[in-house]
Amino acid sequence: MSVRKHRSQPYQIKGVDALFGELPLAEVAAEILPLSQIALPQQQPRRYFDPMAMQELVESIRQHGILQPILVRPLLDDKYELVAGERRYRAAVSAGLEEVPVVIRELTDNDALQLALLENLQREDLNPIEETEGILQLIALKLNTTSESAIALLNQAAHPKRNSVDNVIHSKDWQLVQEVFNTVGKFTPESFRTNRLPLLTLPDEVLAALRLGQIAYTKARAIAKVNDLGQRQALLESAIAENLSLTQIKQRVAQIIDCSTNQSDRSQSSSLKNRMDVTYRLAKKSKIWENPKKQKQIEKLLAELEKLFSQD
Comparing C-alpha atoms, which of 195, 206, 198, 210 is closest to residue 232? Predict the structure, then answer.
């Protein structure tokens, strides 16, 4: 089946011009392409799709078709790789469509991945983990570095006492970082570093629930304050099953921490008593009493103990 022209809404990703310069996607006419000729990319930024939201999109496509074309780039053997529009692609497959409107552009691997990330970051249903990882990956691609180096640069700019912050914020790399945040339009570098980077160090089970959209990131951060794995897992399951509010979660976290502290205090008290018993038995068997110099030390220690116990 050949590619043919198609009239649809113009293709547009907010911020494309800022990040890519001359890439007039909105000016490119859409074409019709068989779904069988479109392949998903090996590196896909999006991992989780809300089932309810996807079903709504499937029903919309069944009734109205795909209003905004999918962005693809040509491969070998008359095939095309999906660049942006994975939700629409998946929904079209579920809706039983045989062909979809597309915009075809020649793109490098780097540009294709950046466009895919940028479109995903503009979705309202993107979960906080994917959003955080997506922004870091976008920064890393712009700087031609790793996500770890991008994190290091963000931290560097926030600690002037340990690093030369002036050198960082006036560097070309930092200008590119600012461009990314200005394009995404949801965070400043500092708010992203403070509120989103900590999500990447959450315990595995909390991170998994957050990635699946089962819990809000504010609730996830509160639950992560529970150190005990069993207690944390139980609280996480309750928070999801009972749809606990952030206030309720914080109350339960406080109770768990308070209980753990009291148990620790009781354990420490019991340990001190045991040590006192052991010391007393050793003292009775010791020959220290025959040493005049050590007798004076014992007198001082006994006097301090007597004073301490009399204050109870």
Answer: 206
